[in-house]
# Entry
Amino acid sequence: FLMHLMLISKNIPIKNIILVIDTDILNEIDSKTNNKKTPKFNITFKEFFEKKSNNIIDINKFEKSFVRDKGKDLVFISSGHGSIDGLENSKNNTYITYDYFENNASSENRTILLMSQCLAGAFHHLDTRKNICVIGASEYEYSVSLDFFTLCSLFGENSNSFYQALSFFDGVAINPFLFSFFSASLYSDDLMKYHRNKNLIHIYKYTAASTNKILQKVQRRIDLELSTDSKSKEFRPESTTVIQSPFLLNKNLASCLI
# Structure
């Protein structure tokens, strides 16, 4: 939802936005959120996705039904599960793979992938000669999701209102990399005061640094809890080290994208 809202807020035309989703989840979202209304638009989340998308494609049908317009750039933003095999489609245990995007890319137009799933490094080795840029939330690690309210503390005294407006329900978790990217894209003038050109590489640098800062706080909190719980200390090496390494493929292209 945050990524979709970011596109609308940046005045990306609805005709250029395609939502790829498990339609079972879409059909149930209003009941899960008790018909909560989205900020600014005063419509439910399901209505938001339907009205603010040019087309909605079920994840099962994406690879067969989506036809790329060869005359346009493609920006693909993922928010789901992944493995070293690619972006996971849990409905039928298949994956949207590295090969799919490379085969649909060309040197004539740009392909930009923002991959937030676990093991996004599966997409780190695409052929950049085809004008491909990839930003990944985690290299070969499992990405972390954190309580949304904690992340909203970035907005200081406005954190509670920000959280209430944008969360599906209390206790919802979100990938800190996606949250940082959302924040850097919409509030770049406040967060990146010293960069006149807010191009993609600057947004990535802020996002990666912010994500690591958030995860370091999580690690310190874990260490503090372990220091007061002697029974847990022996498990620390296996289960309590927080690692998530963002990456950027094709810095040259990223420096040209606004």
The first strand starts at residue 18 and ends at 21. The radius of gyration is 19 Å. Confidence is low (pLDDT under 50) at residues 232-238. The CA atoms of residues 138 and 246 lie 5 Å apart.
